[in-house]
Amino acid sequence: MSIWVVQKQMMIIFAMILVGVYLYKSRHLSNESSRQLSWIIVNITNPITLLCAALHEEEKVGAAEVGIAFGAFAIMYAILIPLAYLIPMLLNVDKSRRYAYRMLAIFGNVGFIGIPFANAVLGPKSLIFVSICGLSFNLIMYTYGVASLKKTALEQHPGEEGNSDFSLKNIINSGTVMAVVTIVVYLSDIRVPDAVNSTLTYIGNCTTFMSMIVLGVSVAQMVPKEVFTRWRLYVFVILRQILVPILLIFILKPFIKNELILHTVAVMSAMPAANLPLMMAKQFRVKEDMISAGIILTTVATIITIPAVMYFL
Q: CB of 264 within 8 A of CB of 129?
């Protein structure tokens, strides 16, 4: 894979993020309208982008390769979870703050940023593997992630009963359902009329620009001092977004012959921190300042970290 292609795509993405920054700063886009756009992206355009990949007419991969992708992402998370405990220890993070680093380390933004990025850099054929990663993400987030945040909430607010609004039923959401539908449609080789295919494509094509606009709104609101003066986060970025993906590449490369699967796993493992742990932390009244700072810094850092990881492919 050409590093220039990756760098060019990162520059395009950050140009679109700057558009979002401008729209917020010039008051053409508000927090409320940003939240509304987020809902549209998460529940409509992102899932449809996945479905478009399944309906694409190019030569498709077989069920065996889909199974290999499931195994590869299982290995990815099996590595990330123990590392999420090790990294805060190595950085000597206060025990009361280690939960934030665990959330940042395990849960990458494989949907909001991962889908449009993989579509642009790796092509539509990669999205079947991205949907598998999304399924794995949701299963772990709504089981381990929820349990971990609930435990932290009880530690921070002793004597109070943990918020139980999130449960295993939350695994069933638009992203998970569409990921399952995508895999079924893909393996069944279902065809739809051209008009339906074109309509879905037009909707899915909105995802990249809108998601970067919303991300730009978040960047525009950040307080630089709270984000860029935390030295441990810089070390975390190097460990989590460069060294860990490279380690994963070297572990999987001898066993995975399909380069597209390997490239997709590498890209997904190099994604910046996801927004969902932050939303859940707010729901459970867990202190979220470190999670918020980590999301912003890891996102900004991707312009350097992702090309660095891609160099090893």
A: yes
Number of domains forming the structure of the chain: 1
Going by C-alpha positions, the residue among 265, 234, 224, 253 that lies closest to residue 108 is 265
DSSP sequence for the chain: --HHHHHHHHHHHHHHHHHHHHHHHTTSS-HHHHHHHHHHIIIIIHHHHHHHHHH--SPPP-HHHHHHHHHHHHHHHHHHHHHHHHHHHHTT--GGGHHHHHHHHH-B-TTTTHHHHHHHHT-GGGHHHHHHHHHHHHHHIIIIIHHHHHHHHHHHSTTSPPP-S--GGGGSSHHHHHHHHHHHHHHHT----HHHHHHHHHHHTTHHHHHHHHHHHHHHT--HHHHHT-HHHHHHHHIIIIIHHHHHHHHHTTT---HHHHHHHHHHHTPPBPSHHHHHHHHTT---HHHHHHHHHHHHHHHHHHHHHHTT-
**How far is the C-alpha of 150 from the C-alpha of 311, rounded, in Å?**
39
Look at residue 159 in the predicted model and tell me its pLDDT: 65
Task: Report how far residue 182's alpha carbon sits from residue 77's, in angstroms, rounded to the nearest whole number.
Answer: 22
Task: Domain of residue 45: give its range.
Answer: 3-310
CA pair distance 295, 104, nearest whole angstrom: 7
* pTM, full prediction: 0.79
pLDDT in tens, 125-176: 888 898 889 888 878 887 888 888 888 888 887 866 544 455 556 667 666 7
Say if residues 264 and 130 touch (Cβ distance below 8 Å): yes
Higher per-residue pLDDT: 54 or 256: 256
Residue 3 pLDDT: 67
62-93: pLDDT as tens digits: 788 889 999 999 999 999 999 999 999 999 99
Q: What is the mean pLDDT of the chain?
A: 84
Q: What is the CATH number of the domain that holds 157?
A: 1.20.1530
